[in-house]
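Following up on my earlier thread - several people asked me to post the actual chain instead of describing it. Fair enough. Here it is, all 176 residues.
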Amino acid sequence: MSWIVFIVCIGLLAVIIFQDFKYRQIFWLTLPVLFLIFTGQSIFFNGLKYAALYFMVNFCFLVFIFLSGVLLVAVAKKASLPETFKTFTGIGDVLFFLVVCTAFSPFMYLAYCGLSALVAISGYLLYNSLVKNVQISSPFAGVMALLLVFFITIRQVNPAFDFYDDEMIASILRFR
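Reply from S.P.:
Thanks for posting it. Predicted structure:
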């Protein structure tokens, strides 16, 4: 990643982090720019065929996770689907997930989403246990952006860390 693209990505992600942590919403204009940057990088590193394949697999995973989560909460709380979707997640979180679909290969995307969820839920529970003013919502897009800044910085410093190489995840999952 060139230094100019790196700085632009970090700047846009910093805006998302700040806005989501402070206001629990994000400015929509940052998302198309990040989408174009991540899509361009995916096409550059993988070619159009694999970039489209990675996006579609990640998008299907995203749809499955959100539909499953919304249905689970709707059934548990006996609420309507649109009402559950509004309280379960914000549109900014969903759009950020969609943007990040282009940034990773499928296994790396699964690992990133899982790690983001783990960090967001842990941080939410820790914050609410330490502070008397209980927060109802969690800055999920902000946490995801913070982790993405961390991973982009690692990739900038160590080019061997590749967002599109599933071999790293596969080697972690091997039980030898």
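The mean pLDDT is 87. That should answer part of your original question.
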